[in-house]
């Protein structure tokens, strides 16, 4: 625990803040036996704010839960399978539900190619959340995030329990990557290299805004290369894994960072925490884009304040214009999926 905690705290200052530790939250992970689910659950087990870590998957969660339950941190760990009302037990009284359930990409696939399989998985899990933990914060990792977040929102609306402050698309991996890639390019410390990334979570909808990092000067070729790398960083991992899936470990790190920030804001009363996340947003309302990721201040009820885009260079404006039609298409696809019956 000390080892994990030190490592993680060094990388994310608030990840394990214990100053006002209340040890009160139940966090459910759906898809907990998977490539992301297992390391994410491990990192969450190290957070002392979590009193109950509840793991749900189609298989293997009893084993994963038994294993994690030996770690000497406060969280009780329970494993649930679909039989015996497992999903209901996993979700009841949850404060936060993290959803990495769904299939990952193989080389040559886009995230949208996952829609046919993952849309139904996310819809069904969101339906269970709306029934068993309607007030929980829902953190969607399953791709395509640009569409799965609207799916969760539309399901919650059907049950009259939608609160836009509590449904989040997890886009943290994009800023984690941007920070790392820029620090490699600049020979700077990744811990001190903060990069703004806005938009959605796929290809051209991922918009790094390097101009907003004070002191960062990129020549044109680095600017273009780094922009492409941030937009298509996921493909690097898919290619390297060669059919074995997509990013799992870096995603677990990013997912834990976001979950821990939300716990600090909602449970530990820490003020002023901001994270990028894809939420229902007015930032691009004039362009008809209903969901968008910018820097969001987190508070006791989830989304406290959605920051605007800030100033963009002409190049960043071009990236934004390229993202808008794709985002609108992805959002509409999620909406239509829920309302097709
Ligand atoms: P994986 O196949 O290793 O794990 C997915 C898990 O989900 C499996 O254990 C599977 O049994 C489980 N699952 C499937 N249907 C389920 C259901 N109905 N209920 C509960 N569990 C179910 O995949 P992975 O590598 O962990 O990736 C999971 C998802 O996360 C993929 O869609 C991937 O594209 C996405 N992802 C998102 C980001 C991001 O930045 N948001 C990053 C990486 C991966
Ligand atoms: C990522 O960005 O790594 C994830 O969205 C997984 C993928 O399909 O690339």
Give me some keywords for this one:
341 residues; alpha/beta; Rossmann fold; L-2-Hydroxyisocaproate Dehydrogenase, Chain A, domain 2; 2 domains; 11 helices; 11 strands; 43% helix; disordered N terminus
Describe this protein's structure.
- There is one protein chain.
- The protein is an alpha/beta fold.
- It folds into two domains: 6-171, Rossmann fold; 172-245 and 273-339, Alpha-Beta Complex (L-2-Hydroxyisocaproate Dehydrogenase, Chain A, domain 2), CATH 3.90.110.10.
- The chain is 43% helix and 17% strand.
- It has eleven helices and eleven strands.
- The protein has helices at residues 2-11, 37-45, 61-68, 86-91, 115-132, 145-158, 172-186, 220-231, 233-241, 249-266, 314-339; strands spanning 25-30, 50-56, 76-80, 96-99, 137-140, 167-169, 196-199, 206-209, 273-280, 291-299, 302-306.
- It has a six-stranded parallel β-sheet, with helices on both faces. A three-stranded antiparallel β-sheet has the order 9-10-11.
- Strand 1 (25-30), helix 2 and strand 2 (50-56) form a beta-alpha-beta unit.
- Helix 2 crosses helix 10 (249-266) and helix 5 packs parallel to helix 6.
- The longest helix is centred in the C-terminal third of the chain and has 26 residues, at 314-339.
- The structure holds nicotinamide-adenine-dinucleotide and (2S)-2-hydroxybutanedioic acid.
- Nicotinamide-adenine-dinucleotide (NAD) binds at residues 30-31, 33-37, 56-58, 100-105, 114, 118, 121, 125, 141-143, 145, 170, 173, 201, 245-248, 251.
- Nicotinamide-adenine-dinucleotide (NAD) is lined by residues 30-31, 33-37, 56-58, 100-105, 114, 118, 121, 125, 141-143, 145, 170, 173, 201, 245-248, 251.
- GO terms for molecular function: L-malate dehydrogenase (NAD+) activity.
- One of its GO terms (cellular component) is cytoplasm.
């Amino acid at each position: 625990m000390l080892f994990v905690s030190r490592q993680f705290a060094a990388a994310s200052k608030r990840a394990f803040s214990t100053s006002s530790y209340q040890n009160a939250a139940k966090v459910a992970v759906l898809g907990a036996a998977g490539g992301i689910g297992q390391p994410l659950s491990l990192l969450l087990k190290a957070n002392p704010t979590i009193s109950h870590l509840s793991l749900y998957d189609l298989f293997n969660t009893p084993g994963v839960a038994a294993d994690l339950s030996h770690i000497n941190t406060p969280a009780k760990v329970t494993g649930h399978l679909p039989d015996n009302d497992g999903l209901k037990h996993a979700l009841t009284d949850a404060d936060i539900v993290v959803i990495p359930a769904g299939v990952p990409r193989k080389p040559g696939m886009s995230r949208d190619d996952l829609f046919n399989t993952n849309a139904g998985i996310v819809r069904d899990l969101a339906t269970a959340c709306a029934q068993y933990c309607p007030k929980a914060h829902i953190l969607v990792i399953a791709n395509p995030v640009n569409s799965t977040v609207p799916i969760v929102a539309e399901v919650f609306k059907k049950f009259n329990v939608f609160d836009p402050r509590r449904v989040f698309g997890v886009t943290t991996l994009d800023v984690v990557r941007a920070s790392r890639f820029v620090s490699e390019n600049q020979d700077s410390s990744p811990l001190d290299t903060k990069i703004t990334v806005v938009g959605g979570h796929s290809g051209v909808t991922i918009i790094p805004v390097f101009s907003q990092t004070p002191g960062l000067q990129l020549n044109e070729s680095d600017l273009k290369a780094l922009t492409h790398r941030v937009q298509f960083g996921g493909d690097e991992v898919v290619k390297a894994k060669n059919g074995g899936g997509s990013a799992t470990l870096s995603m677990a790190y990013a997912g834990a960072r976001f979950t821990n920030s939300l716990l600090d804001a909602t449970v530990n009363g820490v003020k002023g925490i901001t994270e990028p996340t894809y939420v229902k947003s007015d930032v691009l309302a004039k362009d008809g884009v209903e969901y968008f990721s910018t820097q969001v201040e987190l508070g006791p009820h989830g989304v406290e304040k959605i920051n605007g885009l800030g100033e963009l260079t002409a190049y960043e404006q071009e990236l934004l214009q390229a993202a808008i039609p794709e985002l609108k298409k992805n959002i509409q696809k999620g909406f239509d999926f829920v309302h097709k019956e």
